[in-house]
């Protein structure tokens, strides 16, 4: 069985450690790590449960001596840290940086020495940064920095002097072997620290876009702009924006611009259809097929427009057919784009009002009763740590452009800030106060009673330094039961799935 001790990992300063590449998405890295259970036997996800989209997210690999830091809003890898050289065999070009212990029972292997780094690996560099010890401690930390990579050494504080040549100081017995290594984007560690989580990543979210055949891989979506009238604009990394017009954009358009879907999900969910049935729906619209009916006029009736949030995921028992690009579809289906962070419902176009202000009126199809298949709904996933569907999709960032609002609404905005802005925007757009109340009344959705996705991740719901509760899931469970409940809130053309901490876990545009 291959392990990290047997397979040396190449160090690429400012870029990567093995397959771990700076700028890679949290979803991509976790998926890759989980595909190698014999090498990465334990994974810990550390995040701030109250602000999971604003504070960094950390993956810790305790059996591999690694720690990976991601920014919160975009969930992209910003810092790779080697904390235990004895658990990693590392090479730079043809030179060995550190030699891992052959087995856990062997004496720990030490990290590289200053002379080895300075003379054989990276050569001369500028003086590093000395961090004095805390009160009562005898050793400080000396950080030796090169472009894109830095090493930390413990240094006897009594030997430190700003006037002393750092090469002779670090070559003396007062300095230890390197105790850690960091890979980052920047000319030096001091330069990288100030922009660690805000600097634009140089490399893409997926390693597939770095290969020689990247022209065959669809360009990644950087941001989704949601306009009124069912107009969604996808801003891409290196290509022109691609616009999706709900009710007009065809499956062929989607595949041409976004590539074939990662999966196609056809299983229909009828758990909430009862809320759209009965005589109280004046328009008699059907709740199937993703064409959302007019909310009921009786405020005591639950809201049928919440149905969309129940059909946003592919499941193992649905036997999805991937990469089906042509031919008529037997039923409405979702195109699952896990790598882009969204799902798109493909269904017969409808002449019914789409409810979003500014939506054009559609004429009924004149093709013998057969409507053309078009994109009718898009679900933008937040991939919020701690949420039930975490890591099914990579995070999709969006901005909601409604009216002439001066304050922007983004995927990082808490729902308590979003709600009053949208209420003001669409005030007077409803047929009655009852209809307005029916849209904006929250409905609780429990995802924790079904079969949870398999996971080997240990979830730590707070900072690594302050964590008091470590909720380790049971076998076969991805999350704890308390993480399943979310609330759904609707506005014309929009549906928000909101977690208990106020984060928007999914935005549905229809």
**SS-based class:** alpha+beta
Q: What is the approximate shape? A: elongated
Helix content: 10-25%
What's the story with the biggest beta sheet?
10 strands, mixed
The helix count comes to: 7
Range of strand content? 25-35%
Please tell me the total number of domains. 2
Radius of gyration: 26 Å
- What is the subunit arrangement here? single chain
Number of strands: 28
Low-confidence stretches: 269-330, 351-355, 364-369, 449-457, 461-483
Tell me, rounded to a whole number, the average pLDDT.
77
**Biggest sheet: strands side by side, in what order?**
10-11-12-13-7-6-5-4-24-25
Distance between the termini: 49 Å
Q: How would you describe the overall organization of this protein?
A:
With 510 residues, the chain is of the alpha+beta class. The protein folds into two domains: 9-193; 214-447 and 484-509, no CATH class. Helix content is 11%, strand content 27%. It has helices spanning 26-34, 114-121, 166-171, 189-193, 251-258, 415-425, 433-440, and strands spanning 9-12, 16-17, 20-21, 43-46, 57-61, 66-70, 77-82, 90-92, 95-98, 129-131, 139-146, 149-156, 175-183, 221-227, 231-236, 242-245, 263-265, 333-337, 342-348, 373-381, 398-400, 409-410, 443-446, 457-460, 470-471, 485-491, 494-498, 504-509. Strands 10-11-12-13-7-6-5-4-24-25 form a ten-stranded mixed β-sheet. The longest helix has 11 residues, at 415-425. The protein starts with 8 loop residues before the first strand and ends with a strand. Residues 269-330, 351-355, 364-369, 449-457 and 461-483 have low confidence and may be disordered.
